[in-house]
Amino acid sequence: MPTPGYDPLNPETLRDPYPAYALMREHAPVLWHDRMGCWVLSRYADCVAVLRDHDTFARDPRRVGEAIPEPSLSVQSLDPPELGPLRRLLMNAVHTCDLNGLAQRTRERSDALLSALATQTTFDVVEDFASPLSLDVICDLLGVDRPERGSFAEASDAIMRSMDAGLLPETAEPGRRARQQLSALVASWFAESDAPGLLAEMRRGAPAAGVPETYVRNTARVLFQGGYSTMVAAIGNVTAQLMQYPGLLEHLSEPETRTTGVDELIRYDGPVQGTSRTATRAVTIGGTRIEAGQTVLVLHAAANHDPDQFPRPDELLLDRSPNPHLGFGWGPHACAGTLPAQIALHAVVEALAARPRLCAAGAFVRRRTATMRGWQHLPAAFIPAACTAPSGRHP
Ligand code: HEM
């Protein structure tokens, strides 16, 4: 039996990674990847087992003897038990935010953007809709002023690309510089503003929770950049699906289907393809021995199409329930922004469903990124005369 290769940046894999994931799941579910120097996991049960077992699989590099720069100490990098107070502070702040208001404002902002775009012959869904809307959503949630979008989006892009540093080492340094740039932005919020929102809530609660201010600052940066870039990719992916399969939008006009449907769209082709953890001790997964200090890459997106967990995994079933997908992660590091992200996507789908059909107006172009799956360009039009047959096939 040949061992399947896995090249996440191969154009064919970027276009449609699901056949490569299926091959790995079937023939090499615990695959050693020379170039990335890590084990790649593609079966649902193995992925969940790793994400749950934070004792054995560390996020915090200090647990395997590696240093971590201070700006990286955040909710994303700490592990239990040190993670506990910060994570609780963050989740309490999320639940204290005015999420109904966020839903309403996201819907209004989506309507306003789409109305303005409807006056143009063609536009780019990513640049003209997903990016400005995501920035508004994240500023609204955090309770901070909107930074100038161009330079922020550039810095966010550099950080997002540096998540692929295992494959493309040259992305690491621009990512580090962009993190510094965004840390300066966060420092300005701490100096100037205390507007209501998630950040003010965290700052207010931090002293009593015993959470150092640096952790709150670094977490604010992670929330802002991570929340923005995943929302841009998610809105792009969802809108592309709706443009390519117009029948979907009709089903999504039903409120109940919209709730299950948004989750299913994330399972089916979500933005976050994987995450990594490092083994703190030798352990066996699926009959393969992982040594202490070795890294495992958990492929959420491969797990989300595992036929042992999801009946008809390669079909988009908008009423799929239950749907325990890993698109928002799992375990102590599961996505802290799941609820606001679902609320925002719900509002976007609602806004799109209330308009004439959006159609492709040129070739769709994928981003050349492995960890985050998204579109670089999605030319679109509301005007039938400007529509073309969509390209950039979806699975
Ligand atoms: C549809 C949009 C989104 C998707 C698909 C998504 C997905 C994910 C996934 C898979 C993880 C787990 C990563 C891991 O285990 O290493 C994660 C973590 C995280 N997400 Fe999201 N996310 C989305 C939107 C957001 C938003 C809007 C925010 C901020 C408001 C956010 C904040 C975070 C944070 C802070 C973490 C780290 C949590 C921790 O490590 O404890 N996400 N996200």
TrEMBL record:
InterPro entries tied to this protein: Cyt_P450, Cyt_P450_B, Cyt_P450_CS, Cyt_P450_sf
The record ties this protein, via Pfam families, to: p450
Give the top-rank taxon of the lineage listed in the UniProt record for this protein. Bacteria
Gene3D superfamilies linked: Cytochrome P450
Ordered alphabetically, the record's keywords are: Heme, Iron, Metal-binding, Monooxygenase, Oxidoreductase
GO molecular-function term, one example from the UniProt record: oxidoreductase activity, acting on paired donors, with incorporation or reduction of molecular oxygen
What the entry lists under PANTHER family is as follows: CYTOCHROME P450 YJIB-RELATED, P450, PUTATIVE (EUROFUNG)-RELATED
Its family remark reads: Belongs to the cytochrome P450 family.
Q: What is this protein called?
A: Cytochrome P450
